[in-house]
Queue: 2 jobs
Job 1
Amino acid sequence: MLLMPSQIISRYEEICALSARMVAAARSNDWDQLMVLEHSVALLRDGLLREDDNSALNDAERESKARMIQRILEDDAEVRRHTEPWMDDLRRFLGGAAKKRQLARAYSV
Protein backbone atom coordinates (compact mmCIF):
# COMPACT_ATOMS: atom_id res chain seq x y z
CA MET A 1 0.00 0.00 0.00
CA LEU A 2 1.50 3.30 -1.08
CA LEU A 3 1.54 6.19 1.35
CA MET A 4 -0.23 9.47 0.75
CA PRO A 5 2.09 12.48 0.22
CA SER A 6 1.36 13.85 3.71
CA GLN A 7 2.21 10.45 5.21
CA ILE A 8 5.48 10.30 3.29
CA ILE A 9 6.52 13.74 4.52
CA SER A 10 5.43 12.84 8.05
CA ARG A 11 7.60 9.71 8.02
CA TYR A 12 10.61 11.69 6.82
CA GLU A 13 9.97 14.23 9.57
CA GLU A 14 9.94 11.38 12.11
CA ILE A 15 13.21 10.00 10.77
CA CYS A 16 14.74 13.47 10.81
CA ALA A 17 13.75 13.97 14.46
CA LEU A 18 15.06 10.54 15.41
CA SER A 19 18.35 11.13 13.60
CA ALA A 20 18.83 14.37 15.57
CA ARG A 21 18.26 12.38 18.77
CA MET A 22 20.81 9.84 17.53
CA VAL A 23 23.39 12.62 17.25
CA ALA A 24 22.67 13.67 20.84
CA ALA A 25 22.99 10.06 22.03
CA ALA A 26 26.28 9.60 20.16
CA ARG A 27 27.69 12.85 21.56
CA SER A 28 26.88 11.70 25.08
CA ASN A 29 28.19 8.16 24.45
CA ASP A 30 24.75 6.73 25.19
CA TRP A 31 25.20 3.63 23.03
CA ASP A 32 22.10 1.87 24.35
CA GLN A 33 19.86 4.79 23.42
CA LEU A 34 21.63 5.12 20.07
CA MET A 35 20.83 1.49 19.26
CA VAL A 36 17.16 1.93 20.19
CA LEU A 37 16.89 5.03 18.01
CA GLU A 38 18.71 3.36 15.12
CA HIS A 39 16.24 0.47 15.27
CA SER A 40 13.32 2.92 15.13
CA VAL A 41 14.85 4.70 12.15
CA ALA A 42 15.44 1.38 10.38
CA LEU A 43 11.79 0.40 10.76
CA LEU A 44 10.57 3.71 9.35
CA ARG A 45 13.17 3.63 6.56
CA ASP A 46 12.25 0.09 5.54
CA GLY A 47 8.58 1.05 5.42
CA LEU A 48 9.38 4.03 3.23
CA LEU A 49 11.41 1.89 0.86
CA ARG A 50 8.32 -0.24 0.30
CA GLU A 51 5.65 2.47 0.34
CA ASP A 52 7.18 5.78 -0.80
CA ASP A 53 5.65 6.95 -4.07
CA ASN A 54 7.86 9.91 -4.93
CA SER A 55 5.78 10.60 -8.03
CA ALA A 56 2.81 11.47 -5.80
CA LEU A 57 4.71 14.39 -4.23
CA ASN A 58 4.40 17.91 -5.56
CA ASP A 59 7.49 20.08 -6.10
CA ALA A 60 7.39 21.65 -2.62
CA GLU A 61 7.03 18.23 -0.99
CA ARG A 62 9.93 16.83 -3.05
CA GLU A 63 12.09 19.79 -2.01
CA SER A 64 11.13 19.29 1.63
CA LYS A 65 11.90 15.58 1.36
CA ALA A 66 15.29 16.34 -0.21
CA ARG A 67 16.16 18.80 2.59
CA MET A 68 15.22 16.23 5.21
CA ILE A 69 17.26 13.51 3.52
CA GLN A 70 20.24 15.88 3.44
CA ARG A 71 19.79 16.60 7.16
CA ILE A 72 19.54 12.87 7.91
CA LEU A 73 22.76 12.23 5.98
CA GLU A 74 24.53 15.02 7.88
CA ASP A 75 23.30 13.56 11.16
CA ASP A 76 24.51 10.12 10.09
CA ALA A 77 27.97 11.53 9.38
CA GLU A 78 28.01 13.17 12.81
CA VAL A 79 26.99 9.93 14.51
CA ARG A 80 29.77 8.12 12.66
CA ARG A 81 32.33 10.69 13.85
CA HIS A 82 31.42 9.70 17.40
CA THR A 83 30.94 5.97 16.97
CA GLU A 84 33.88 5.05 14.76
CA PRO A 85 36.57 5.68 17.42
CA TRP A 86 34.52 3.61 19.88
CA MET A 87 34.10 0.84 17.31
CA ASP A 88 37.84 0.88 16.57
CA ASP A 89 38.57 0.50 20.30
CA LEU A 90 36.08 -2.36 20.51
CA ARG A 91 37.64 -4.11 17.49
CA ARG A 92 41.12 -3.82 19.04
CA PHE A 93 39.81 -5.13 22.36
CA LEU A 94 38.01 -8.07 20.77
CA GLY A 95 40.91 -8.76 18.43
CA GLY A 96 43.31 -8.80 21.38
CA ALA A 97 41.08 -11.17 23.32
CA ALA A 98 40.83 -13.50 20.32
CA LYS A 99 44.63 -13.53 19.93
CA LYS A 100 45.02 -14.34 23.63
CA ARG A 101 42.63 -17.28 23.26
CA GLN A 102 44.49 -18.52 20.18
CA LEU A 103 47.81 -18.32 22.00
CA ALA A 104 46.40 -20.07 25.06
CA ARG A 105 45.04 -22.87 22.88
CA ALA A 106 48.28 -23.16 20.94
CA TYR A 107 50.45 -23.47 24.04
CA SER A 108 48.15 -25.41 26.33
CA VAL A 109 48.36 -28.56 24.24
Note: Residues 5-82 form a domain with the Methane Monooxygenase Hydroxylase; Chain G, domain 1 fold (CATH 1.20.58.380).
Job 2
Amino acid sequence: MQGGPKGSAEPVHLECAVCGCRGELFDLPGRKEKYCLECSADVATSILLTTEIDAATCSGEETAGLVSEFVQLSRRLLARAQLQ
Protein backbone atom coordinates (compact mmCIF):
# COMPACT_ATOMS: atom_id res chain seq x y z
CA MET A 1 0.00 0.00 0.00
CA GLN A 2 1.27 3.44 -0.87
CA GLY A 3 1.13 6.24 1.61
CA GLY A 4 -0.31 9.69 1.08
CA PRO A 5 1.65 12.94 1.21
CA LYS A 6 4.81 12.90 3.31
CA GLY A 7 3.89 12.69 6.97
CA SER A 8 0.38 11.46 6.17
CA ALA A 9 -0.95 8.03 7.01
CA GLU A 10 -3.72 8.34 4.41
CA PRO A 11 -3.36 5.98 1.44
CA VAL A 12 -3.15 7.36 -2.09
CA HIS A 13 -6.23 6.39 -4.10
CA LEU A 14 -5.26 6.05 -7.72
CA GLU A 15 -8.01 6.59 -10.24
CA CYS A 16 -8.24 6.26 -13.99
CA ALA A 17 -7.42 9.62 -15.57
CA VAL A 18 -10.49 9.36 -17.84
CA CYS A 19 -13.32 7.61 -16.02
CA GLY A 20 -12.14 7.78 -12.40
CA CYS A 21 -12.57 4.09 -11.63
CA ARG A 22 -10.37 2.64 -8.91
CA GLY A 23 -9.29 -0.67 -10.30
CA GLU A 24 -6.14 -1.98 -11.89
CA LEU A 25 -4.49 0.89 -13.74
CA PHE A 26 -2.06 0.86 -16.65
CA ASP A 27 0.65 3.19 -17.95
CA LEU A 28 0.97 4.24 -21.56
CA PRO A 29 4.36 5.16 -23.01
CA GLY A 30 4.90 8.90 -22.97
CA ARG A 31 1.97 9.57 -20.61
CA LYS A 32 2.08 10.46 -16.92
CA GLU A 33 -1.55 9.49 -16.31
CA LYS A 34 -2.74 5.99 -15.50
CA TYR A 35 -5.80 4.41 -17.11
CA CYS A 36 -8.14 1.47 -16.53
CA LEU A 37 -8.01 -1.27 -19.15
CA GLU A 38 -10.90 0.05 -21.25
CA CYS A 39 -9.73 3.67 -21.20
CA SER A 40 -6.09 2.74 -21.84
CA ALA A 41 -7.16 0.87 -24.98
CA ASP A 42 -9.17 3.87 -26.19
CA VAL A 43 -6.42 6.39 -25.41
CA ALA A 44 -3.83 4.21 -27.18
CA THR A 45 -6.17 3.90 -30.17
CA SER A 46 -6.68 7.67 -30.26
CA ILE A 47 -2.91 8.19 -30.29
CA LEU A 48 -2.54 5.78 -33.21
CA LEU A 49 -5.45 7.34 -35.11
CA THR A 50 -3.96 10.81 -34.68
CA THR A 51 -0.66 9.56 -36.09
CA GLU A 52 -2.40 7.89 -39.04
CA ILE A 53 -4.52 10.99 -39.76
CA ASP A 54 -1.41 13.16 -39.75
CA ALA A 55 0.46 10.77 -42.04
CA ALA A 56 -2.47 10.53 -44.46
CA THR A 57 -2.85 14.31 -44.50
CA CYS A 58 0.86 14.81 -45.23
CA SER A 59 0.76 12.32 -48.10
CA GLY A 60 -2.45 13.76 -49.56
CA GLU A 61 -4.55 10.67 -48.85
CA GLU A 62 -8.22 10.64 -47.90
CA THR A 63 -8.75 10.98 -44.13
CA ALA A 64 -12.56 10.98 -43.80
CA GLY A 65 -12.77 7.38 -42.57
CA LEU A 66 -10.01 7.84 -39.99
CA VAL A 67 -11.50 11.14 -38.80
CA SER A 68 -14.93 9.52 -38.45
CA GLU A 69 -13.44 6.72 -36.36
CA PHE A 70 -11.58 9.27 -34.23
CA VAL A 71 -14.81 11.23 -33.62
CA GLN A 72 -16.63 8.08 -32.49
CA LEU A 73 -13.77 7.17 -30.17
CA SER A 74 -13.63 10.70 -28.75
CA ARG A 75 -17.37 10.64 -28.03
CA ARG A 76 -17.00 7.33 -26.21
CA LEU A 77 -14.13 8.67 -24.07
CA LEU A 78 -16.05 11.88 -23.32
CA ALA A 79 -19.17 9.96 -22.31
CA ARG A 80 -17.13 7.73 -19.99
CA ALA A 81 -15.40 10.76 -18.46
CA GLN A 82 -18.71 12.52 -17.80
CA LEU A 83 -20.02 9.52 -15.84
CA GLN A 84 -17.53 10.02 -13.04
Note: DSSP finds two helices and two strands in the chain.
